[in-house]
Structures are given as C-alpha cells and as structure tokens.
C-alpha cells in the first residue's frame, strides 16, 4: 500500500521555513505515528535527505526556535542557551499553528522586546498570555 503525507497550505507557503525544514516536519510527523514515537537520530535524517548532520541540527534548531517543537521543556532549554538567567515555565498552550501564534505575540509585544526572544512583560501582559486557550 502506498503511504502519503499531509502538509498544510500555510506551511507550504511559509516563506520563513525552508524546504528541508518542511520535509523534516513531514518525516518527524510520520515517525511520530510509530509505537515508540519519533526516536530517529540526526544521522537518520541526514542519510534520508542526503545532507550533513550539521545541516539537520541547524534545521531542527530553527524549527524549534520558530515554535514547531511540541515539547515546551525542550523549547525552554533552547531559550536558556541565549540567556545566562534562570527561567521557569509558567504557562503553555497547544495551538494549531504555533509559528503564527508566536508571530502574533511578538507583534503584540514588539515595543517590549529586549532582544531576540526576550521581552520585558508586566503582570498584565503575562495574565493575558495565561488567558490564551488551547486550540487543539
């Protein structure tokens, strides 16, 4: 039986996501359907796509930074590398399009950006974010 894959039209036309990143998301999604989930190594992806492991590492890091990671704790660990301060996870939501939601929040709080992924939010801002509902 021939198997296929599904790619949302939004992701297909997303100019901020490379084709390799899109293909990685498809492969990860397919492997996630296995009993043990996606336990593939960067080496597996590199061999599958005929690229260097470093290229896969960069693409996976980019996807995580763009909000495609479903693991909030993994995302938090990646953010810790860009700051020397300690951080704790205070809230998380599941959304259909994490990249779009992150983009919306970045736009909403653009005047409060310190640098990169870091913002100077007050209690009211945090309460607004904590009020966001799961979409899944």
In N-to-C order, the SSE pattern is HHHHHHEEH
* Low-pLDDT ranges: none
For the sheet with most strands, the description reads: 2 strands, antiparallel
The count of β-strands is 2
Give the assembly state of these chains: single chain
Strands of the widest sheet, in order across it, are 1-2
Structural class: mainly alpha
Count of helical regions: 7
Using only CA atoms, what is the Rg?
A: 17 Å
Strand content: under 5%
Shape by Cα distribution: elongated
Distance between the termini: 30 Å
Summarize the structure.
Helix content is 49%, strand content 4%. The protein has 136 residues and is mainly alpha-helical. The longest helix is centred in the N-terminal third of the chain and has 14 residues, at 19-32.
Provide keyphrases for this structure.
2 strands, 49% helix, elongated
Characterization of the model:
- The relative contact order is 0.10.
- The model has no long low-confidence stretch (mean pLDDT 78).
- This protein is mostly helical and 136 residues long.
- The longest helix is centred in the first third of the chain and has 14 residues, at 19-32.
- The chain has helices at 9-12, 19-32, 42-49, 53-65, 72-80, 98-108, 123-130; strands at residues 113-115, 118-119.
- The chain has a domain at 1-66.
